[in-house]
Each structure stands twice: as structure tokens, then as C-alpha cells.
Amino acid sequence: MRRLALLLATLTLPGSAWAQEDLTRLPDPSDSYRPALTSWGEPDFRGGWPIDHLNGRTPLQRDPALGDRQLLTEQEYAERAEVVEALEQRYANEDESGTMGMGHWAEVSAANRRTSWITAPANGQLPALTPEGQRLSDAMRSSWVEGQPFDTWTDFDSWDRCITRGLPASMFPFMYNNGMRIFQSPGLVALQMEMVHEVRMIPTDGSAHIPAAIGNWMGDSRGRWLDANTLEVETTNFRPGPSATNIGTTGSPRENDIPVSTSARLVERFHMTGPDEIIYEFTWEDPVVFTQPWSARLEWLRDDDFAIYEYACHEGNVQVRNFITASRAERAEAAQ
């Protein structure tokens, strides 16, 4: 636990390794660490790797005023820390007033120095959509879109319906349910995610992708060990549709939903840089939807004591029906 505390300090405190002179780039992941090996000879990444510590107001996309800077100055960091401290106080305030609201519902962790999770393009922004990507996005429906009426189940995205948050969205922190755990067996890595209780099965035995005609919500992943401390994963075979991806993390596009095509490809690298740290990086390319690929980086910290509980989503599977009933009633009342 002392190691975990030190790593959290590195992520959050002014004057730490993050407070480097060049604020425009993050330090490259170290290749010097050599993790222990499993009994069958693969690097041992097993354990709890929750990303709840990343839920500290770092946005997906960077504030344009920060330009190409990947790190905050000490003053900017202090300002973010002040905002986070106020958010953390909500829980105690609600307890004192005998109420229960967003302070109990939305988790927040310590601030960090990152200006955005997106690292490429250099401006930290999602690339522009292609004309076809824009057309597909405009056709999407979601409960996250303000003022949208609901008439059928197709007015809800896959996360609304508790099917999946999709990729790469599932790899970003949200306001709750940020647990992740890695399991391994010979030739296989399994990544369990608390949100929607999905498990990504990643063969590392050299087997080929499934046929291109088969599409999955989370795609089809294949991994390989690049060296003693890095796992690279390529995911293809994504299931297209008008409601496939909802990033949902701080700083996501206002409409939240981004379409996915059958041409989408995700390449991830998990670098273990110490016994309690993984630098997670990915590049997402979907030429049907985006005008160029984009990349992100997140710093994972080990916490084997993090407990993953039931993710009920919506009890009794009645909320989609309730949204539709309420929406129709509101419109009928407005018409009168």
C-alpha cells in the first residue's frame, strides 16, 4: 500500500515527476522494469487495476486554451485540485443535511496534472468526423441527448439498454463502477470490467481473428507480448450501428455518442512500468467515421483490494419502457 500511495503522489502532487520543464509531452513509458513471470512463462499482469483514481476532472478532450500542452502548470493544477476538493465535500455535506444526491452518486478522486486523456492529435481534441461519420452521428439516439423524445427502444443507445459501453469508451473512467481486473491463463488474458460486468477475452496464442463477417459489440481482440513488460492488443470485428459507442467521461462531445463502422480498429499497449503501475495507451482508427486516427493514454495503479460489486444497471429492466411512457405523457400534456 505504501507503493500505491507513492504512485498516487506522483500523479497528483506539484513538484513531482509530472512537474517537468516540458509541459507539452508526457514522459515515455519505461522499459527497464521486468515483471514476474507466470508459471507458464508469460509476464504476470494479474491483479486489480481499477481506474477510479483517474476520475479527477481530467477531460477526454483538452481545453483549446491549453494548446498542445499535455500537462498542467502548478497553478492550473492547484485550481483543478480546489474544484475537486469542493466536489469531494458534497458527500459530507449531504450526510450533514440528511439528504442524498450527486455527492453520494458521483465518485471523484484526487486531481492530476493531465490536460486531457487524448494525446494525439497534438491539440488533444477528437478529429473531425467525415461526412459519413457526421451523417451516422446525426442519426444516433440516446438518453444523453437533451430534449430528445422517446418512442421506441431504438431511441436509446447500447449503454442506455445496459448492453455495453463499447470500445474504446469502456477503457475511460466514469463517475462510478471503475473496477478492472486482469486474469491470465496459458495463451489467454481476460480483462474484467465492473461497468456492465463485461469481460474482454484476449487470446495471446497467435490465433487469427474470427471471420470479418462476424461483428461483436466489443470487437474481437488478439494479443501478443512485445517484450518482457508490454502486451499489445489489436481489436477488429466491431459491430456497427447507430448506437454503438458512448464515451461518457468528462469532456466528451456534448452529444456523447460516436458511431462505429466495420472498418474500426483498436490497437492497445499495456506497459507494466513497475509492480503497481501500468501505462495504458491506445490508438483508434475508423476511416469511415473519423478523418484521422486518435490516441489516448491513462496511468493505471494496482489496487488488489478494490471490490467489484453487482452492476444492476436498471432494476427489473423497466426503465426503457418508463422513459417512453413518460416522454409520451409529457408531449401529450404539452399539446393540450
Helix content: 10-25%
User: pLDDT average, as an integer?
Assistant: 88
Number of strands: 12
Strand order across the largest sheet: 2-12-11-10-7-6
Set down the secondary structure blueprint:
Blueprint: H1 2-12, E1 47-48, H2 74-97, H3 102-105, E2 118-120, H4 131-138, E3 180-185, E4 188-193, E5 199-203, E6 220-227, E7 230-236, E8 241-246, E9 257-260, E10 265-274, E11 277-285, E12 294-301, H5 319-335
Question: How would you characterize this protein structure?
Answer:
- The protein is of the alpha+beta class and 336 residues long.
- 19% of the residues lie in helices and 22% in strands.
- It has one domain.
- The strands form three sheets. A six-stranded antiparallel sheet has the order 2-12-11-10-7-6. The chain has a four-stranded antiparallel sheet with strand order 1-3-4-5, with no helix packed on it.
- Strand 11 (277-285) and strand 12 (294-301) form a beta hairpin.
- The chain is globular.
- The termini are far apart.
- The model is unreliable at 1-10 and 12-19 (pLDDT under 50).
